[in-house]
Amino acid sequence: MFRFLHAADMHIDSPLDGLDAYDGAPVEALRGATRRAFENLVALALDERVDFVLLAGDVYDGDWKDFSTGLFFTRQMARLHAAGIPVYLIAGNHDAASVLTRRLSLPPNVQVFSTRTAETKEVPGVPAVVHGRGFPNRAVAENLVPDYPAPVVNAFNVGLLHTSLTGTPEHDTYAPCALRDLLQKGYDYWALGHVHLPQVLAERPWVVFAGNTQGRHMRETGPRGCRLVTVDASLDVVSCEHRPLDVVRWSLVTVDVGGIEDEQAALAVIGQALQGGSREADGRLLAARVTLTGATPLHDRLRRDLPRLRAECIALAQLTAGEGVWIEEVVVATAPVVDPEALAQRDDLTRVVLASLQAAAERPLEVPTEVDALLKVLPGELRAAAEEELTEAHRAALLQDVRAIVLDALATRTGGAP
Question: In terms of pTM, does the model score above 0.85?
Fold first, then answer.
């Protein structure tokens, strides 16, 4: 039996641009999170006494600002070298051969795969081989899988690959391939990188995105870490556990304040939700976006005084977990308490307006052809952010806001809600 760790997309020293715009943001803790998460990966490898470690690309976030990033990585690899743990590494699009202009010598336990051709490396003392190839440049448009070597007989075959597969909205399409390409290769485990969401795509053979080791923004919520894989004497995978490594947990905290008439009661519900989120973060810093939903008589007050509401939420977070919770944003998606059917009986104009709102809510989202073409040429993260604003969920939320404003105005014009 042997065990290994599969990690990817560490993005060490990612700058996390834009944090300075957030008042009171724990900037140093957030910017240092990628290093701390990588230290956790190394600590896990040592604690579990794994036989080897796989790093499926994007160790770095791009060219180093100075040598401190490379020295940090070298220090961590030296810890594994001292414990006799080999590391197998490929370059991804963020740390491709053409991207990194600075380089440092690595300890002998770190095996870096060629960026020119796929190759095979044996794992000393273990019946396993690793096949892999790194990115020679940032944008690799071809399918690399056909060039990977044939599986080695009587060995556990691992394919180490940085790929978008057939493409995802959140990531640029690099080294594209189909799932069937991987399934038909004859390997036992595909250790994938590039897609940041942890996911298991198949189990016979195993095809796994480890996900990134540390979430970096609100589009990367939930636990982030690596996979701890155990292989038995028959060379079968008996477990593939997700192990969290993140030190900051990004979370969307939705709070239903529907029917609540008293502001203090609403704040109490928000406090309970933050307390639950803090518990789920399990000692990590919780970076929370609080979204209030539901029809409530407090709707107008909440929308009118958003800065004070955010300050109240920050105060609640401090009471709940001290410095353990940071409120990234507060979103008011509530609705006024209005009976639309009763309003519709008031006059013809009101009835037409309400019918139009209902029809808009039922129509599917149609993105203009020109906008869709523009989205296709945007870089991955910019495209993901733009497409997020065009999703059915965001459209529904926007329509809900519009509906709430119109209903509130109609109720006020007709002398108050019934």
Answer: no
What is the number of other CB atoms lying within 10 angstroms of the CB of residue 232? 11
Q: Is 333 exposed, middle or buried (0-12, 13-18, 19+ CB in 10 A)?
A: middle
**Token pair in block for residue 283:** 């000692």
* Torsions phi, psi for 350 (to 5 deg): -60, -40
The two beta strands, 248-256 and 110-112, are: unpaired
CA atoms within 13 A on the CB side of 299: 23
Q: Which residues lie below 8 Å from residue 230, measured CB to CB, with a gap of 6+?
A: 1, 2, 3, 237, 238, 239, 240
Domains located in the chain, CATH noted: 2-244 (3.60.21.10), 248-337 (no CATH), 339-418 (no CATH)
The sign one gets for the Cα dihedral 8, 116, 67, 64 is: negative
Taking only the tens place, the pLDDT of each residue in 198-257 is 999 999 999 999 999 999 999 999 999 999 999 999 999 999 999 999 999 999 999 999
Phi-psi map region of 104: left, alpha, beta (phi>0 left; psi -120 to 50 alpha): beta
